[in-house]
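Sat 14:20. Reprocessing the chain from the morning session after the first attempt stalled halfway. Input below, unchanged.
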Amino acid sequence: MEFATITIQKRDKGVAWLMINNPPVNAINDTLMDDLEKAADVLEDDPDVRVIVIASQHPKILLAGADLKAMIANSADYAGEENGIEKGSMRMQNCFHRFSTLEKPVIAAINGHALGGGCELAMACDFRIMGKGRIGLTEVSLGILPGAGGTQRLTRLVGRAKALEMIFTAKQLEAKEAEEIGLIHRAVNPEHFEQEVTEFAELLAQGAVKAMGLAKRAVNAADLPIEKGLQIEAKAFAETFLTDEPAIGLTAFFNKEKATFI
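Finished this time. Tokens:
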């Protein structure tokens, strides 16, 4: 499948890099969202892809926010259409949420600015590794608010008080500070960025990624009442036995060997 705004690079050990390329600044528009959703479907269905890395071909930007010029140009149309702007917000939410629910590990490789929508996409990924650039939700400085999942995901990651502080002040964090508050998982030297991301992705890819996907489904249910979460966990646990991974893992355990899932 060909895409207008992204490319997919399948590398060693089942790691696929989804590279965003929507010049000039990787702004979010309908074409990019269509491509991201289609790519998520393709990568989830591809048995050779075990881990997904979302990165950028832009040297300074992972992903910019929504196309503000288009938003302003269309504001009159939105005003005349019932819930038009709300539908636009939900469109972005649903696009990014696709990666949050994709049942394979997803890593955001942040080696440039991830502000506004870029931060929201990164937060929808399972892991965030950051080298250079700044990350944050800057929408309030423009008189709007994060509308692609940012208010919900940031609160879950860093807590209500810190989320409100960052959103109200439109604060932009460099990698180390973002790591300290738990917004990203790892701040790395930009000179070794791709190597660090690759090593972590390949480490995940060597594991039981089908079990990881099912565990991700159960973890995503942790915000539900615990009775419902436990029910989803039990069902996911049972589904692991529909794959070949328990046989591989348990056989290796009893033979005192390291399991080889690839």
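The chain has a mean pLDDT of 94.
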